[in-house]
Amino acid sequence: MSRVSNLKVKIVGVGGAGGNFISGIKERLNLLKEVESIAINTDLQDLRAAKADLKIPIGEQTTQGLGAGMNPQLGKKALLESKEKVIKVLEDSELVILIGGLGGGTGTGALPQIAKLLKTKEILTLAFVTLPFSFEGGVRKKIAKKGLKELYTWADATMVIENDKLLELSKNRREILIREAFGFSDEIVFSSLESILELLNPTGLITLSFENIREALKEAGSFFIGRAKSSGEDKIEKALKLILSSPFSPSNLKTARHILFSLASKGSITLKDIDKFTQVLVQKKLKDTKIAFSILEDPSLKKEEVRLTLLLAGF
What is the three-state SS of the chain? Predict the structure, then answer.
């Protein structure tokens, strides 16, 4: 059985960065066997290089296949020129996950327009987007923030990966290379996508329904998802602490309107473990937060190891 069962899930990389994310996922995580991967771009050379199940060129008349540079209006115009073929591919989806980098022309201009098209079809739409490093320049950052504001209007839920915050993950390490810095954001996106698919896993002892996920993320605005492994005493609480130490996590759990979590083990999770973890959440005074969870068995984990996947939405 597929990890996402019979759900029609499509992952769409938009622009150069989006196409690169799709290629990296296909190569390194082998995640997309169960969902359709799509690359959308104005730059035909970049599009040909993307390792996606389907490649959609947009704005062939607008850009002549040469890309949109740092002009989001050109990216928007390109998408509108090609919107019929884009929506034809996506309209049968139940969940669409958009991925891209903001600050350039195609991703910044086209991502909000795709989300807008999906909203008219009432398709649940999540977005993972990166914001530029400061060293990429103030103009690119300004373009990115304007695009993000528009994306929030149309996507149901957006997780923002500010590349400057990734530097916090490299504290107390040697000086990092430029390519390593960009690699950090790739890893965050890859891990987040795998976490979403884990929440959709239909084969657990206790499972989350797609309606649980839809309720949590529909028009949520912002969301965060993370996961961590731990073992030993208080292993679930330790995993929670690791997740919440992420620079992308909200500082206060109480601000989240919905919490979904998944616990995976080799079969070692006890009722006491679940009760203790639930008490940790209760102690955080989440009286107005809706909580749902799943319990999975994963033979690849070590004997006493657990993997916690946590999604916070609507903060």
Answer: CCCCCCCCEEEEEEHHHHHHHHHHHHHHCCHHHCCEEEEEECEHHHHHHCCCCEEEECCHHHHCCECCCCCHHHHHHHHHHCHHHHHHHHCCCCEEEEEEECCCCHHHHHHHHHHHHHHHCCCEEEEEEEECCHHHCHHHHHHHHHHHHHHHHHCCEEEEEEHHHHHHHCCCCCCCCHHHHHHHHHHHHHHHHHHHHHHCCCCCCECCCHHHHHHHHCCCEEEEEEEEEECCCCHHHHHHHHHHCCCCCCCCHHHCCEEEEEEEECCCCCHHHHHHHHHHHHHCCCCCCEEEEEEEECCCCCCCCEEEEEEEECC
Distance from C-alpha of 220 to C-alpha of 290, rounded to nearest angstrom:
13
Query: pLDDT per residue over 210-260, tens digit each?
Result: 999 999 999 999 999 999 999 988 899 999 999 999 989 987 777 889 999
pTM of the model: 0.93
Residue intervals of the chain classified under CATH 3.30.1330.20 are: 211-313
Query: Which amino acid type is present at position 11?
Result: I
Q: Would you state the CATH architecture of domain 211-313?
A: 2-Layer Sandwich (3.30)
Which pLDDT value is given to residue 123?
Answer: 98
Residues of the chain with pLDDT under 70: 1-5, 29-33, 168-176, 285
Ramachandran angles phi, psi of 224, nearest 5°: -135, 140
Whole-number Å distance between alpha carbons of 94 and 179: 35
Residue ranges, comma separated, of all CATH 3.40.50.1440 domains in the chain are 9-199
Architecture of domain 9-199: 3-Layer(aba) Sandwich (3.40)
Do the beta carbons of residue 15 and residue 75 sit within 8 Å?
A: yes
- Give per-residue pLDDT as tens, 144-164: 999 999 999 999 999 999 988
